[in-house]
């Protein structure tokens, strides 16, 4: 057996109440806590970003296709539904679904209050399963085969403001020439936590929007395109731009809500700074642990030098001890980090204020590749750092080391 490994194992098996044993436990604990915090931080970051993005996608899709116009109002320029792109979008493998919708501004009036709203008209092709994550009460609207459906889904914010509950009938006033009014029934209530949507949008039948705008049944305001993978956003936008008519434009969701995506990018930078500080603290703790170990083992170092061991062999003893501490810390860190993450993932014990954070609980998402990289980076970085204090071995003189008393 290798001499350095043998002595390292003997040192580890030594049951001592010395100060070194306490310091070693602190070293293991610092690595374990640091890695656990990093795992939980990344799980929360990924979960939070994914939760916000999913809410945006469920309401606005990944890409919107509309007519090129200088109009900046909520009144959309009509475009045909059955275009060549709409009929053949399945030929683009990155696209999961395309739906035709239309927006129209109006006033929603209950028996007591009045509020400006935008009705988002949807058809039978609407992706209700994606939107269902926002539903808190009721059901989706049912479509009528002969005329438009008089059912709508409103936000909790609008329902609270206008004192509306499920099954209530309310009036929608469309400000146009001549003004029109329609009675609708509330069959569902949603909540996203995103103020821009919750305070403005209700969901109704696209046929109602078509009738109010005097459009035919083959007309909509824009397409909403859902992708299989958000990472394909830029490439797919270019493909869609090449396939749609020349008087249409494709707009990415990152361009529709730049402030939100800039904010999410800023979260990445903040978490990286925190993780760097955690790793620095763990590295300094390990350096301190090894220095204490070498101070207590100074007579042993002197004896080994007197017997002919070179500095490399002696340094290897303490590096192997440090590696053992690191691996123990990694094991407990994964156990704590993944364990706490699983508890929150399944039981959602830690709540959040949705008005400030857009989500009602701390979200957790697992990126196992990131966790593996965190483990590898922690091991390699701390292992590289702990070679520094072992350089003190080469500075020790045999006579002085043998005379050293603990």
Automatic annotation (TrEMBL):
Keyword Iron-sulfur: no
One GO term describing the cellular component: plasma membrane protein complex
GO biological process per UniProt: lipoprotein localization to outer membrane
Main localization (coarse): membrane
Membrane topology designation: Multi-pass membrane protein
InterPro entries: ABC3_permease_C, Lipoprotein-release_system, MacB_PCD
Subcellular location: Cell membrane
Domain ABC3 transporter permease C-terminal: 273-396
MacB-like periplasmic core domain segment(s): 28-213
Transmembrane segments: 23-48, 271-295, 325-348, 368-393
Signal peptide (from-to): none
Pfam families: FtsX (PF02687), MacB_PCD (PF12704)
Keyword entries, A-Z: Cell membrane, Membrane, Transmembrane, Transmembrane helix
Family according to the record: Belongs to the ABC-4 integral membrane protein family. LolC/E subfamily.
Protein name, per record: ABC transporter permease
The organism of origin for this protein: Emticicia agri
